[in-house]
Specification:
The chain is mainly α. 45% of the residues lie in helices and 0% in strands. Helix 1 crosses helix 2 (28-43).
Amino acid sequence: MNQITLQTMKPNVMEKLQNLARSHQRTLEEEITVILEDAVLVDRGVDLEDRQESKLPASYSTRNS
């Protein structure tokens, strides 16, 4: 298991992340993971609107868009 520790997260950013997670019915960890994975895909030129769930890594299988 990988672990990331953020020690300087601004409280308002944390609150917004928690609200996003709640609105997507995810845990905070799941929400942050999806955000980071999406950022990597976009950086690689993947159009997030056109992708197919079946072509995504297993970590996307529980994603609630």
